[in-house]
Amino acid sequence: QFEEFDRVFEFPLILQTVLTLSCTFSHEHQLFSNHKHYHHPATILLGHLPINPSHLRAYIKSFEPKCNHSKEDDCETMLTVAKTSSLLNLFYNAQAPRVIRHISRPPSSKTLGQEPRYNPLGIEMLPDRLHKQVFGCEGDGVWHIDQPNRNNLAKCIQHLRRHDLLPKQLSEIDTVYEYHKHLSNTTQDVTEKSQTTKTVPGEVVIDIPRLEGKDINEHFNQLGRKYSDGYKKLACDIIKNGSSIVDRMPKEWVSKSGWTRYEPKADGNFSISHVDSPLEKALIFDVETCMNDSVEHAPTMAVALSEKAWYSWTSHRLFDDRIGCDQQRLKLQDLIPFQSSQTEEKLIIGHNVGFDRSFLRDQYTLKETKTKFLDTLSIHMCICGLTGLQRAVKLAHKRKTRDEGSIDPEEIEGSSWIERSSLNNLADVYEFHCGKKISKDARDVFISGTMDDVRENYQSLMTYCADDVKATFEVFKKLFSTFSDRFPHSVTLAGMLEMSTMYLPVHMNNWSRYIERSQETFDEYERRLSTALQDLANDACSMTEEEYLKNVWLWDAERSTQTIKANKSKLTAWEKSKKSSGTEDVDCLDKQVQDIYDTKSFMRQIPPFLPGFPKWYRDLCCPVSKAHALLDGKEWQPGPCLITTQMRITPKLMRLTWNGYPLHHHQKHGWGYLVPNGDLVAEYNGTPEGHPYEKFPIDELRKLCRGLPRSPILIEEEDDLREDLLQAKIDELKENTQSSSPNLIRMLKKFSKKKKISARFRGEYCEDVEIPGAYFIRLPHKNGTNFNVGNPLGRDFVAKMEDGTLSSLDNSLANLLLRHSLSLSYWKNNQKRVRNQMVLALDDNPELGAILPRVIVAGTVTRRAVEPTWLTASNQDTTRVGSELKAMIQSPPGYCFVGADVDSQELWIASLMGDSYSYRIHGGTGLSYMTLRGSKSEKTDMHSKTASLIGITRDDAKVLNYARIYGAGQKFIERFLMNTNPNLNSEQAKEKARTIFKETKGERKFRSRIYWDGGTESATFNKLEEIASSAEPRTPVLGCKISQALEPEQDQAKDFVTSRVNWVVQSSAVDFLHLLLVNMKWLFERLGIEGRFSISIHDEVRYLVKEEDKYKAAFALQVSNLLVRSYFAYKLNMRDLPISVAFFSSVDIDKCLRKEVNMDCKSPSNPRGLKEAYGIPHGESLDIKETLRKYSGLDLGSLHRGRPC
């Protein structure tokens, strides 16, 4: 390497030039001249120059064309200076711990422009060329890459070393300089080794389309305005001009199908005309549907308001009985026409407008139009939305106010937020913002009435619909300017408009087949389940009384029976008749049979149901006379045909256990389990007569639990005797001593000790349930210890069935029932929502259809989108019926889905905030370093580190880490640890929780203010809490303001500090999504991609794209991720980005929606998989290198002309 250096340069000349240029580095000289490891820049250059010879030759060659001087000496001098400055530039770019100024422009060579570049912590950053394209230029070709100063870098390294995060080979390095020296000598070796095994970020060669503006900040400002200004103008126009129209509502509506326009005239009348669709570009809109229409989901009537006129729409089904009299399925012709355009911007405003959108005919076309939707419910949530807990409190407050007329101010002291928001329905929102009320009584006609009822009340119902439109207009007028002030960045509005146009294509036959197969499989599994349950019931019914009393589950089952009773007068008459005919031959068989038949003559007219059978069993059986009402159309059968997993007797028949302890139901406390407590004194004394647990089989309980590990419920105490020896002593005393002997009691107390309840379980422990020798512990409820569990076989306990916590005692049939119940859980909980999907076949191809998800684009206080089916759909599970639901969203021929999951989105956002707060270097905090350099396979990522720290699984650690990032406290961590590890006692859980918080969040300190210190996440939480506790909390990137109901000044009691911290992270993630959507819209236009936004689920986005444009769309996603992450860094004053987060780890190209492109989505209802059953092949997953290779066929020159700088 140095031989090459000597061959190219005249050594004395380069030395002279270096010394001449040393003044350029005078600042560095002042910083480091007193350091023992300091070397003059010239010495560093000559002694430690880490430059590849091939790159050096390319540098020299790149400067030679610039020598056009006539004098050869001048040319040689200029060339030498240029060469030297470029070499110094290369060296300091890798090593200097401060701001670097490039003396000359980097060469134009693509290869050199993509040379790997590392920050002082060894984290690879964007290559020079890409960095300049993203972050732009400053001044005359001079650009900056921020680096920390020396002191900050030293602190940063010390912080990382303290948490054992630096590479082991650096453990002995004590100085900043030696760290850099080691780094510069090793990074190239590491890169060369990596190139032989996997795709290296440093290999990325990419040019991106020129940004809209001089830098990334201007780029997103311009994009936001480009995609929102037109719609914002439409909104402002209808607010301004619609005020004169809204109060001039028609008093009579034209009873005619289709659209009717009512334009007010100066004389107070209306110009009424029939139109194909509304003429104006902006509308306030509301739809009403009759729930009992024979065609499900068909819209019945609608009203719209524009800046010039009112409109009404009526379904042809309401007035023309001849149309669709035999129709059963909804068609596009039944929907509302609107005549959307692909070139003209239109805006529809409504309250929960996603519902209204699903009834617009032209929204089902495959090609996207420029009609967008603005939701007043979402705007209300953004401005003054409530958290789940606040909503519950607000609802209780509303009920109490309604019942009592007023509330004592002291009851809401410190909670002024209650008066700063409302519930989300239109009536409450209208009353809160406008101080007026609207009647919703007429809605009952649409809910419970028929189409005839709607016809009879047509005028009043149309007025009711128009009143909703008027209320929506006034709410929108009140809120829109406030929304613009609180959410000032235009990208927020543009992103919400884009989110309002979700579109899910389906194949109609495949959709129908999925529902049919899921239902058939469900019915078959349910039949097997019912048969197995009936077998359990029949077996239990044959038990003797003694067996009942020894059964820990069924000892308290209601065993009363009914007997056959005769009519006394008829019986007397029959007996007399019998005596009078006593001379007949009684040995005749026919006569004996006839006598039995004759007994019916003296039986009561209504005999008892199943005489002789216990009551619990009779309750499971269905009389023939009640079969139609009780069996819901199913065929009657003898025996316990009514039994289901929802019945209280079922867990008892299945002999369910919780970690081996038998389940028990208490009338007051719901379901729990029984744990022997060793209180032999109470056991011996027994219970008074009439006590509910007088006959409880404590001996059987103790035998049942004898082989179990010591329960974490009980505080560990050393017994005086082993349990089996102790019981032998007790039995001996019982045999030889009178029960009343005081000596016996003293002996019992000597030999036994009642075990105490662990503090962890005191919330679940029910002290008022007095069972001699046992504790009753309630099952954990998802909402906390104040709630009872109603059914241990419900959906909330599916995970406990899977991990074996909830099981059955040595009963293969019962365990089979558990597995069947688990298989049925998904379809049981989702079939109604799936069947209620509004699926419409397309006019041009009836085999294809579409679903418009009824999304509330900002349905939570953090502005996350809400939708009950598609945004909550879980991934396919091989054991659950119908779980392949998402895969039924299938692209039409010629199209495919292109999408990606944002890698560790919220974790990265939180870590970036910590970096910006502390040393302003990527990877400068422990959390960020693990996020950027951590490896799951090497167990150096955040979740693996946490798992190793306290001895839990990585999956549990992942849940725990995200909970902490969202603001969960130590108490939550303790409960979480004890729930995931039943053998952990409260003290151990508390110690582990302390360890986690000390290592991660750090310790609370005070220096002019309270702050966190010493943990890997201290800087992150300091930043989050700084934002959350500010007077006006806003997201750091788009400046979105927190809901009024969560503002610090409205929370004097500080009940919602955690919610505000959570809001900072999650609302920033919504900013990320909005930026991504807007940038993708720009790239679709810029690159000529034919497609549309399909759906966003949590941190994933999917686009529906033409097959020929799929690689363009994949490239667009990668570029969008790069620009959005760079914009986040830019807004947090960090003008650089690690390449490890710059691109998606993979972009999926597929024919359906599924978690992984190679999943075949097999399930009980789809045993053959997608490929065989539906003809859907595996998709392809592309990393950035493969994306660029696939995309390389495009002529980039025309797309990327005019590169910045």
Total beta strands: 26
Helix content: 40-55%
CATH architecture of one domain: 2-Layer Sandwich
Rg, Cα atoms, Å:
38 Å
Q: Count of helices?
A: 46
Biggest β-sheet: count, sense, barrel? 7 strands, mixed
Lateral arrangement of strands in the main beta sheet: 6-5-9-8-7-10-11
Poorly predicted runs of 5 or more residues: 1-113, 138-143, 171-178, 183-202, 717-726, 747-753, 1196-1205
Global geometry: globular
State the name of the first-level CATH class of one domain. Answer: Alpha Beta
CATH topology of one domain: Nucleotidyltransferase, domain 5
Which class of secondary structure composition applies to the elements? alpha+beta
Average pLDDT, rounded to a whole number, is 81
Q: Strand content of the residues, in percent?
A: 5-15%
Distance N to C terminus: 32 Å
Protein name: DNA-directed DNA polymerase
GO molecular function: 3'-5' exonuclease activity; DNA binding; DNA-directed DNA polymerase activity
Keywords: DNA-directed DNA polymerase, Nucleotidyltransferase, Transferase
Enzyme class: transferase
Could you please describe the fold and organization of this structure?
The structure is a single chain. The strands form 7 sheets. A 7-stranded mixed sheet has the order 6-5-9-8-7-10-11. The chain has a 5-stranded antiparallel sheet with strand order 16-15-14-13-17. The two termini are 32 Å apart. Among the domains are: 2-195, no CATH class; 248-408 and 416-486, Nucleotidyltransferase, domain 5; 564-607, no CATH class. α11 (216-246) crosses α20 and α34 (905-917) crosses α41. The protein is an alpha+beta fold and 1205 residues long. 41% of the residues are buried. 44% of the residues lie in helices and 10% in strands. β14 and β15 form a beta hairpin. Mean pLDDT is 81; it is low at 1-113, 138-143, 171-178, 183-202, 717-726, 747-753 and 1196-1205.
